[in-house]
Amino acid sequence: AADTGTFMDVYPAGEAPVPGVSGKTFLNVVLDHAGHPEAAYVPRRVEVVPYLAAKAAEGDLVITMGAGDVTAIGPQLVDALRGDHDISQMELVDIAHLHREAASGK
């Protein structure tokens, strides 16, 4: 069982968004069940790595699930925990990368 769960906002991947469904919707499902783990909603993607870096401790296992740039969170978190990158600069680079991909049609 997980000790904690962190939910981001839900972004459509080419399909129409489902009205009323957000990361907070998933958080509330977890919170509605007795014995749930600690859970949080971090709606802005740029706040996720700093949030997780502040919560993670030595020996923790962090699992990321999602689509799109969610796959970048794991490596960014490792870098942040090692002190390899300034988190705010890391997020700016990630956002610039996404804009280049969008412009190229990837």
Q: Biggest sheet, open or closed, and with what strands and sense? A: 2 strands, parallel
SSE string, helix = H, strand = E? Answer: EHEHHH
| Helix/sheet category | mainly alpha
Strand tally is: 2
Strand order of the largest sheet: 1-2
Task: Tell me the span between the first and last alpha carbons.
Answer: 36 Å
Q: What's the number of helices? A: 4
Helix content: 40-55%
What general outline do the C-alpha atoms trace? flat
Oligomer: single chain
Element layout with pairings:
Blueprint (H helix, E strand, L loop, with lengths): L3 E4 L15 H9 L6 E4 L3 H11 L17 H10 L4 H18 L2
Parallel strand pairs: 1-2
Helix pairs in contact: 2-3
In short:
Helices cover 45% and strands 8% of the residues. It has 106 residues and is mainly α. It starts with a strand and ends with a helix.
Short descriptors:
single chain; 106 residues; mainly alpha; two-stranded parallel sheet; flat
